[in-house]
């Protein structure tokens, strides 16, 4: 309940990918069971302030496996009767899977709108696949029910950032801008460009 009126839960605290800015693969955390998640949401419900559930997840085995697990969790949590948002790594077919499970909103993170930087900082992940999933998600979930984190400060130019934000907004995707954060476990793995350094 650290987000106002939301039970915000990370399902798998580990990841097979190795995005250079991300601490999750280094932390190698646990994978929560359905039972644990249910108990957490129940605890949030007892505060009397639960208005929504957000599920986010790394990738324990594969994006498909992860989304299937999260879909089962969404089905189970639908009994709480509040909207459920899901953020997972996308792949073809993910939107239908989450929609039929009962998800109300989705978030697939592009992380950067600069394709060249994406290749460097998110090896093994397809920018185009995320973009395609976002585009399809707008048709399935509706405008303004689809989100994408965009990290600011990975070396992208102002113009690329502005154009990327515009393109997402025109699609009906809400870009969520986040300042790049130099995580201590990622020192030396990625260069972070602060606003002052870049002369904003
Ligand atoms: S896919 Fe997500 S959780 Fe996995 S390493 Fe990349 S940013 Fe981190």
Report on the structure:
- The protein is α/β, with parallel strands linked by helices.
- It has a single domain, classed as Alpha-Beta Barrel (TIM Barrel).
- Helices cover 38% and strands 15% of the residues.
- A six-stranded parallel sheet has the order 1-2-3-4-5-6.
- β3 (84-87), α4 (94-101) and β4 (105-107) form a beta-alpha-beta unit.
- The chain binds iron/sulfur cluster (SF4).
Briefly summarize what is shown.
The chain has 200 residues and is of the alpha/beta class. Helices cover 38% and strands 15% of the residues.
Topology:
Layout: E1 6-10, H1 24-27, H2 34-45, E2 52-56, H3 63-77, E3 84-87, H4 94-101, E4 105-107, H5 115-121, H6 127-141, E5 146-152, H7 158-171, E6 174-179
Parallel strand pairs: 1-2, 2-3, 3-4, 4-5, 5-6
Helix pairs in contact: 2-3, 3-4, 4-6
The chain binds iron/sulfur cluster.
Iron/sulfur cluster binds next to α1.
Shape: globular
Listing every helix as H and every strand as E from the N terminus to the C terminus, the arrangement reads EHHEHEHEHHEHE
- Number of individual domains: 1
CATH topology: TIM Barrel
Helix and strand content put the structural class at alpha/beta
N/C terminus separation? 35 Å
Hetero groups: iron/sulfur cluster
Beta-strand proportion: 15-25%
Give the second-level CATH assignment, the architecture. Alpha-Beta Barrel
List low-confidence stretches. Answer: 196-200
Instruction: Average the pLDDT over all residues and give the rounded result.
Output: 94
CATH homologous superfamily identity: Aldolase class I
The CATH class: Alpha Beta
């Amino acid at each position: 309940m650290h987000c106002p009126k939301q039970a915000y839960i990370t399902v798998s605290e580990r990841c097979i990918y190795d995005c250079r800015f991300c601490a999750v693969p280094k932390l190698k955390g646990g994978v929560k069971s359905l039972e644990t998640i249910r108990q957490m949401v129940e605890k949030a419900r007892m505060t009397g302030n639960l208005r929504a559930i957000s599920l986010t997840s790394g990738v324990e085995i594969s994006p498909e496996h992860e989304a299937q697990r999260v879909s089962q969790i969404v089905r189970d949590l639908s009994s709480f009767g509040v909207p459920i948002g899901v953020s997972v790594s996308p792949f073809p077919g993910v939107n239908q899977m989450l929609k039929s499970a009962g998800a109300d909103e989705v978030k697939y993170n592009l992380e950067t709108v600069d394709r060249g930087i994406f290749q460097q900082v998110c090896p093994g992940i397809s920018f185009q696949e995320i973009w395609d999933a976002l585009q399809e998600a707008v048709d399935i979930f509706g405008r303004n029910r689809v989100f994408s984190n965009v990290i600011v400060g990975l070396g992208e130019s102002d113009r690329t950032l502005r154009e990327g934000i515009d393109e997402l907004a025109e699609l009906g995707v809400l870009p969520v801008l986040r300042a790049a954060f130099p995580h201590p476990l990622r020192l030396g793995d990625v260069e972070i460009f602060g606003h002052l350094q870049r002369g904003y």
